[in-house]
């Protein structure tokens, strides 16, 4: 009983930490991409996550969290290739989008990842999408359209917002690919999610002729990647294992709203009426998405 309670509390703490890290990601990346080209930024963040988590995994390989995990196998290679490609394209799209839109907008638009993940799961993997999740998809999509809309004069959508939405589409593919290897070592998955997309983005940056930052700046960006792209995913995966996906995502789902608030504070942004309307629409959308699935056996045992 004590051990179970301890694991549950630890899992809740992990979910809160993951949400807080995710909330810091858009404003911190917004600061970084003002000085470094977007594709290079995406490459360094991913490489930092892969290398950093690899080092952490080596140092902590005998701890209870890592010991006994299943290793990735040859049969997992197609999923690793798919999630690596999706992560690379998502990171590049997000960094490019952050150069063209406010960090608070990008933060709320991250909710669209829930929509794309569910739709791709339905179309490609024939998964059942509950009615509650369809309502969530409708509310979140409306919120994203409101944030992206530039006005009746041009009846156009912000290029920056559309790039962030595109990033969420790629992350939707990635989430579905990761789900296929969810029983394997999270450390190994994060390493693959970091190093392979990082090397791919780095190659694209060189082809585009982007200027590489000095080594000190590059190291700082990679260190940031360890936290926002590496530890973030690890904390969330371990939280889901002990709380179940619904409970963990209900906690983690607050991160876009925290991010929007943090962005407004850091960049002294005054929320626009459209941002506030989108905020109000997305709150019930995220709640419905987080509670759409039934409880696992572990969840019933805890309640």
Q: Which terms summarize this structure?
A:
single chain; 303 residues; mainly alpha; 13 helices; disordered N terminus; disordered C terminus
Measured between the Cα atoms of the first and last residue, the distance is: 13 Å
Mean pLDDT over the residues: 80
CA radius of gyration is 19 Å
Class based on secondary structure composition and strand pairing:
mainly alpha
Helix percent band: over 70%
Question: What is the count of helical runs?
Answer: 13
What is the N-to-C succession of helices and strands?
A: HHHHHHHHHHHHH
Proportion in β-strands: under 5%
Number of strands: 0
For the largest beta-sheet, the strand count, sense and barrel status come to: none
Q: Low-confidence parts lasting 5 or more residues at pLDDT below 50?
A: 1-5, 294-303
Shape: globular
Describe the structure.
The chain is mainly alpha-helical and 303 residues long. The protein contains 13 helices and no strands. It has helices at 2-32, 38-59, 77-98, 103-109, 112-125, 131-148, 159-179, 186-208, 215-243, 245-252, 255-266, 273-290, 297-302. α1 runs antiparallel to α9 (215-243). The longest helix has 31 residues, at 2-32. The protein is globular, with a radius of gyration of 19 Å. The two termini are 13 Å apart. Mean pLDDT is 80; it is low at 1-5 and 294-303.
Q: Secondary-structure map with pairings?
A:
Elements: H1 2-32, H2 38-59, H3 77-98, H4 103-109, H5 112-125, H6 131-148, H7 159-179, H8 186-208, H9 215-243, H10 245-252, H11 255-266, H12 273-290, H13 297-302
Helix pairs in contact: 1-4, 1-9, 1-10, 1-11, 2-3, 2-8, 2-9, 3-7, 3-8, 4-11, 5-6, 5-7, 6-12, 8-9, 9-10, 10-12
